[in-house]
Design goal:
- Helix 9 packs parallel to helix 20 and helix 12 runs antiparallel to helix 22.
- By secondary structure, this protein is mostly helical.
- The two termini are 33 Å apart.
- It is globular and about 70 Å long.
- It has one domain.
């Protein structure tokens, strides 16, 4: 039981940060009171995250506090032995990892908000309704689109887009929204597992040069199975009725809406090119893409003002069609962004304490690669799969390509087991607040686990 407890805690402790000086390397806090207290702080914070629906306490608050307290303990302990630099180097490394994720997500969320304001998704909703699709057909359509868009647009962005469609079409149908969001999370995570640009964990493996770009496509069939198996079962919870027909004219996309969609595609292409050809982090491509939207926002504002007779506007009234890019940035899901900060910094601190080596020796030394990699996927459902993959890459286990593909698959799709296990799930809990929750997802975890097991079996069958 002690080893199992240490194993569970250790994978929480995922982001590996090793001190750069000799005194830090000799300092093991895993059996020190600081290590024990830090683990308790983290576990308590995560319990509050899980109970968000019951307590109505935003999930970012407990993990933000936990991150600060853990690093205070670490810095105090190292300072007491005269080492004033190791903790600083470690936390800066963790913060840099977070900063890249933060700005990547911020740009994606800004584009999503801009498309929402331009009524792109409202128009898509009305088009789907006018086509006469039933709720069950919409369940499959959004899932399939999520699966095939996520390898290009990444699973988080894809989930946000498809969830906007589900929310628009499913007004008055909370069960459809809940099951539809679960299906989207599973589909987006599965689709992102076989492409380096579909999931951050897959991207990390590719960046390390462990698996070649084209080799990831061997995971296509296992990913399909991971999506299809739970979807086939969940569809029985969806009614065959159709959404109510429109009472009036369908919503029209506002000026520039389709252009913003095109700019978003170009932004994704820019991010891919920055990484693939310039060998720069994709986040810099995303920030460059934000400039596209800002310039186009300037054009929309100028165009809107030119077409209005200002003499007819009463003093103090807003100008019609006044597109404001900073308003779109302000409406990003800040609770989600701060949640990621707390998780990455907190588990980074726990990893710096020294649990990682202990976990590596147990998982890959005693359990073996296959068992360890399957377990990685399960544990990535408890903690976001990004720090879990950081742990595996930092452990540097001696594995062949088959096992590296296995851990890429399990870390990518294992996060679907719980809503808090992936960026897509966490983001959708914020976007569909009150309708898609931790507990609504938990009800379908056994079905999702069936798809998880089936995808691993197919990987062994096809690639073994």
């Amino acid at each position: 039981m002690l080893k199992l407890f240490i194993l569970l805690l250790g994978t929480f402790l995922s982001i590996s940060v090793f001190a750069t000086n000799e005194s830090a390397m000799q300092m093991n806090l895993t059996e020190h009171w600081v290590g024990y207290v830090s683990v308790v702080i983290f576990v308590l914070a995560y319990v509050l995250v899980i109970l968000e629906e019951k307590l109505h306490l935003r999930k970012s608050k407990p993990v933000l506090l936990a991150a600060g307290l853990i690093w205070i303990l670490i810095a105090f302990t190292y300072s007491s032995i005269g080492d004033h630099h190791s903790a600083e180097v470690a936390i800066r490394h963790n913060f840099l990892e977070y900063a890249e994720l933060f700005f990547f997500l911020l740009v994606a969320m800004t584009y999503i908000n801009a498309m929402l304001e331009r009524q792109v998704f409202d128009a898509l909703r009305d088009w789907l309704v006018l086509k006469g699709f039933s709720y069950k057909a919409l369940f499959w359509l959004t899932g399939i689109l999520a699966f095939f868009i996520s390898p290009i647009a990444d699973n988080l962005t894809t989930a946000l887009i498809m969830c906007a469609v589900i929310l628009a079409v499913g007004k008055g149908q909370p069960k459809f929204i809940a099951v539809g969001c679960i299906n989207i999370v599973v589909a987006a995570n599965a689709g992102g597992a076989f492409s380096p640009f579909g999931d951050i964990t897959t991207l990390m493996v590719w960046q390390k040069g462990i698996v070649e770009f084209t080799e990831f496509f061997k995971l296509f069939l296992p990913s399909v199975v991971n999506f299809i198996v739970p979807a086939l079962i969940m569809q029985f919870a969806i009614t065959s009725e159709s959404p109510e027909q429109l009472s009036g004219e369908p919503v029209a996309i506002k000026r520039g809406g389709l252009v913003i969609v095109v700019l978003f595609i170009f932004t994704i292409m820019t991010a891919v090119s920055f990484h693939n050809f310039l060998h720069l982090p994709p986040v810099f491509g995303m920030m460059t893409g934000l400039a596209y939207l800002k310039f186009f926002g300037y054009y929309l504002r100028k165009k809107g003002k030119e077409q209005i007779d200002h003499s007819d506007i009463p003093t103090g009234h807003k100008i019609e069609d006044d597109f404001d890019i900073f308003d779109k940035i302000a409406k990003a899901e800040w609770d989600t962004l701060f949640f990621f900060y707390g998780v990455i910094l907190a588990v980074g601190g726990l990893g710096f304490i020294g649990y990682l080596a202990m976990v590596s020796e147990f998982m890959y030394g005693e359990l073996g690669a296959t068992t360890a990699n399957v377990l990685v996927g399960i544990l990535s459902a408890i903690v976001d799969n990004i720090p879990v993959m950081f742990a595996v890459l930092s452990m540097q286990p001696d594995m062949g390509q088959f096992q590296w593909l296995l851990v890429t698959l399990t870390a990518g799709v294992g996060g679907s087991l719980l809503s808090i296990g992936s960026a897509a799930g966490v983001a959708l809990m914020g976007q569909a607040r009150g309708q898609y929750t931790f507990f609504t997802h938990l009800k379908w975890t056994p079905v999702i686990a069936l798809g998880y097991a089936a995808s691993i079996w197919v990987h062994f069958l096809v690639n073994g």
